[in-house]
Every structure is written in C-alpha cells, then in structure tokens.
Design a protein that fits this description.
Elements (H helix, E strand, L loop, with lengths): L1 H20 L10 H23 L6 E3 H8 L3 H9 L6 E3 L2 E5 H11 L5 H25 L1
Antiparallel strand pairs: 1-3, 2-3
Amino acid sequence: MGTHWQTNTATLLNFVLRILNNSAMNIITVDEEVWKHLNERLKAISEYILKLEDTSYDSLWLNNHEVCQYLHISEKTLWRMRTNGQIAFSKMYGQYYYTIGAIKEMLNSNAVQTTDEYVEQLMAKGKSYIEKGRKLKSGNH
C-alpha cells in the first residue's frame, strides 16, 4: 500500500509542479471532489515534510542537568520519572542520558490538552534553549 501511495503522491506532485511551472496564466477547472482530494494530498505531503524536519533533534542526547533545566524540574523528579518508567533513558558510566525524542514521547503521552501547535512551540523553545546552553558551555571552556 505504501508503494501505491508513493506512486499517487509522485503523480500528484508532478501535476502540481506542471501547473506551477506553466508560464502562461491559464484557468484550470477541476471537479470539487478532485480539488478536495488534491488539497488533502498536499496537506499530507506538507505534514510529512514538516514531520521529517521536526525530528532532526529527536536523536540528540541530553544529560540529567540539561533535561532538568529544559523541563524545569528537579533531579529528584527526573529520577522518579525514570524509576516509574515514564521516560526512556540510557545509562553509561553512571550517567543518565535522554533523547529529545524520548522527552517528546513522554510529554505527548502525559498531555492533558495539547495541540500540534503547542508541542511545536514547546519543542522550538527547547531547541533554542539547548543550543544557547551548549554555546555558552563551549564558550566558557
């Protein structure tokens, strides 16, 4: 089924690109159902691309201190979350590490009310915070 979807998506993208690349301004009439289907496909493609971009930080590893600062929680709270299995982690040489993806999963699974926009804003703030923190640390050494 994935191949069928990819083939249809490629065909749809080629159709849209031909329309956009057409230098002459032509009026194209399309059946309402076809138009709705086209819009749904374009939205799906857009969401897929955004999802690919959004996961660029998911594999970034953070230590205890960074996670606590990022989530504004104490190390004891993070320890409880780890002990209760609320957040995935790795342990190496006595240090605990967490991926941004694991933090996102934990936040999404525990969210009472959330929207994609809220999660995106939260992640953008977190990315900015982490980048600033790492720049400051590297600048001080």
